[in-house]
Specification:
With 144 residues, the protein is α+β, with helices and mostly antiparallel strands. It has a single domain, classed as rbstp2171. Helices cover 39% and strands 10% of the residues. The protein contains 7 helices and 3 strands. Strand 1 and strand 2 form a beta hairpin. Helix 3 packs across helix 5. The longest helix has 14 residues. It starts with 9 loop residues before the first helix and ends with a helix. 18% of the residues are buried.
Length: 144
């Protein structure tokens, strides 16, 4: 497949539907969960929310990310940012499946998995290799 031979204008770029969703079956919960691709503003806000005052990564990154990524059938978030802690009481295997799917949907790769794995239960060697940006990277780090 060749390159598309078209210069895009502002209207075309802003009208593009470039934030896919993914429906993940969760039989343990009796249905499906819809995950969204975070837009740039939401990703920046999420990345800021997981950093403490000294720049250290806070706990419950998985739950914070899922709170931002889980939406209803209309694309409306199911959880507000402050609701993330309630997700920590759910089945960790289900959360891990959703987190993996949300990372993939959002183009986040192994660099993030390795750093996040330090704060999550399980085997930190499960991360697969990818050239994708880290979930924990600041917007400046991603764009440089």
């Amino acid at each position: 497949m060749g390159l598309i031979d078209m210069n895009l204008d502002k209207t075309t770029i802003l009208a593009a539907k470039d934030l896919p969703i993914q429906v993940v079956p969760i039989p343990e919960w009796g249905g499906d969960v819809t995950l969204r691709t975070l837009n740039a503003l939401d990703m920046d806000a999420f990345q800021q929310s997981i950093r403490g005052e000294n720049g250290a990564v806070l706990n419950q990154v998985r739950e914070r990310f899922l709170a931002a990524a889980m939406v209803d059938e209309n694309g409306v978030r199911l959880f507000a940012d402050e609701d993330f802690a309630a997700l920590a009481n759910k089945n960790p295997n289900v959360l891990a499946r959703l987190f993996t799917a949300a990372q993939k949907l959002n183009g986040i790769g192994a660099a993030a998995n390795a750093e996040i794995a330090k704060n999550l239960p399980g085997d930190p060697n499960d991360a697969s290799s990818s050239g994708s940006p880290s979930l924990l990277a600041t917007p400046t780090q991603i764009n440089s």
